[in-house]
Amino acid sequence: METVTLTIKNQPELFLEAETIAPDAFAGKKTEEIADLTVYVGRERHRLGDFFEISGKAGATPEETKIVVNGDLSRVKYIGMKMTGGEVVVNGNADMYVGAWMQGGKLTVNGNVDAFAGTGMKDGELIIKGNAGNYLGAAYRGDWRGMQGGKIVVTGNAGSDIGTFMNGGEIVVGGDADVHVATHAEGGKIVIKGNAKSRVGGQMVEGEIYVLGSIDVMMPGFVYREDVDVDMDGIKGRFALYEGDLGERHRKRKGQTIYAKLYQRIEA
Amino acid sequence: MTKTVTDVICPFCGTLCDDLEVVVSDDGKELLEVYNACAIGAEKFLHSQAKDRITRPRMRQEDGSWKEISYDEAVDYTAKMLADAKKPLMYGWSSTNCEAQSVGSEIGEAVGAVMDNTATVCHGTSLIAVQDIGIPSCTLGEVKNRADRILFWGCNPAHAHPRHMSRYSIFPRGFFTGKGHTGRKVIVIDPRPTDTASLADVHLQVEQGRDYELLSAFRIAFRGEQLPDVVAGIPKEQIYEAAETLKSGRFVIIFFGMGVTQSLGKNHNIDIAIAVTRDLNEYTKAAIMPMRGHYNVTGSGQVWGWLYGFPYAVDLSRGFARYNPGETTSNDLLRRDEVDAVFVLGSDPGAHFPFSSVKKIYDRPAVAIDPHETPTTEVCNVHVPVAFVGVETGGCAYRMDNVPIETRKVVEPPEGMMTDEEFLKHVLARIKEIKGE
Entry's Pfam families (chain B) (predicted)? Predict the structure, then answer.
């Protein structure tokens, strides 16, 4: 695998829209060609090289390309957007839409990210070693097909609206989550290792949520069924199983109604 | 001698009352009296006659004082500011006609602006919910003639839409509602005992910020499933009873306002309220409608919906329309320093935005187009006074139920004053000159 290293040298006056920072755009290009890729500040077009020091070279295909981005990227949007393979490592905080509509490969952020990370994700791995903003792994506005596959791991806390309209894949939050977890979800799995606030699983049709800490306010549509032992992927303990959302539509399989499942840990 | 103009449209709130009578002087230059309007609507007409009204554009001087400038100078300043900016914000658009909104959109396209209207701090969240799950709605005429179950959720029309209840929702006698208010059951859901709640048959005093849970409980109650003993501070018996009241109606209408659109959960509250309406249609006829505030905020959503496919927060900076509330909404743009110039028309963000956003308007080049002196004009570099739409010039406006109504000119504006549309047309022409088109 070949590595391209980007180091931010000029901060944009407004925000930099840099969806070209992805293995797919870099693959098969020389350093000068990568520097010529287009980025935007407002309505102005610029070269990627106007803002970044670029070294190394890209592989022949996205799968053979690794991108390392260094510096304060808190004013850079769309890093790793729509990437299909390869690897991106961000050393610093990044702004919105990190790994949005990601289809494959691995994206690691050693820092915090703002909202809309992993929006409409299809596949691949998104690892955030810090905190994530709102709408982590959520659907794009108006889309009823949210996250379809892949895995998002956040070591810190996450904001509100995690996994809205999710129907596949997995989101793991190491810390706490804000309101609205898996709203409208039709599948997939969300694990919150810290505490959740309220509106966990509202309007949820199918899928699973695991909360290891507390839930401030339980949705009225989730009913307690039984206590179960869980031991999978490092999550272990006795959990109370709730099913819901009773107010939402649910399909039947062999005469049995399929509900969404909410597990809350009662004993480690 | 005076003359009376009948069937005048009121350009204040989204109810867009169309039965006002206005008395004007014989030469049509002075507006003397207003009949049938609510106190706010009447004041809007009468305020156009204020003796201290500003009738010429003004530019802020170094020492903070205003200097009168010509419309030409104001056009030039505005055009240059917009053409120079990398990403200007063009905000407001709710207290003007669709014709001006359309010319403004052309400017937005030419300069790559973000176009946003007052829905951004109002019913924008409702628009997100509508995009997510659709909306079963109706017109206010249907409400008047058919609705026998009226639910006001997080809104207080007694103060915000004063004639709404008498014209459409509670009191009127319609085709199938001949008994007026005695044939209707009114439910108000609000954490506060409002004046609207005092008119209701049932007032459910929901715990602040727990609307989502209560709406979810209604859905569970409709299905006859088991509820916890208390949801959102309301005992389950009251929820089952209210659910039964709604199901037993012939036509249910849910009106909702800022109490749910701008409290915790925002779009999700509306999303689930729409789901409640959809559920009710399994048992009876039900519809839901946002209580839109400004008289033509609905119209700007219509104009942009038609032009760009999105009703507010439209980012045109890259030559195509993008939309994502949370990113392309005015307060997010201002507070994150994403825009470098601000143009305001037909709204008062200075009064309604958080102070942290207003400071950002003050920090960058800004122009306000408004007939009045407002908190916004105080933080702008140039203030351009214009004629009142619906009083001194006509034009199309959309009522809260998306019915277009042509407003009327009843009196002449002060000599030499431009309308919103005229000013914008001049700005557009000047921008085209600057850009060499």
Answer: Molybdopterin
